[in-house]
Amino acid sequence: MNDLNHVNLIGKISSTPKIMELENGRRIAKFTLSTKEQYLDANGITKTRRYWHVLSAWGRWVKVLEEIGNVGSELAIEGKLVTRFYQSKGQRKFISEVEVNDIVVM
């Protein structure tokens, strides 16, 4: 059996994409996407739970997000979960985010 790292999300942009250019000239867009799910609590009452996901997009998706990346825009995202680390105040910190492979504007 092959391992698989695959993420599908449908939600709304909840932060204006931050576009950055790296030293090598590559550009990256970082933003958050909110999703929600409904469930029944122990009393049978419908509740809604909301999640916020950190996403990063490279290449052509940066231009797409510059054009349509307004807060509240609904997107379908396909990508993979990536984890990286950085140093902050002498401590190693980890962050996980969804790296975008494909975007569909809803």
The radius of gyration is 16 Å
Order of helices and strands: EEEEHEE
**CATH-assigned fold name:** OB fold (Dihydrolipoamide Acetyltransferase, E2P)
Quickly count the helices.
Answer: 1
Query: Which CATH architecture is right?
Result: Beta Barrel
Distance between the termini: 34 Å
Number of strands: 6
How many distinct folded domains? Answer: 1
Structural class computed from helices and strand pairing: mainly beta
Query: Which ranges are low-confidence, i.e. pLDDT below 50, for 5 or more consecutive residues?
Result: none
Biggest sheet architecture: 5 strands, mixed, barrel
Q: What percentage of residues falls in helices of 4 or more residues?
A: under 10%
Q: Indicate the overall shape.
A: globular
Topology:
Layout: E1 7-13, E2 18-21, E3 27-40, E4 46-58, H1 60-68, E5 74-88, E6 91-105
Parallel strand pairs: 4-6
Antiparallel strand pairs: 1-3, 1-5, 2-3, 3-4, 5-6
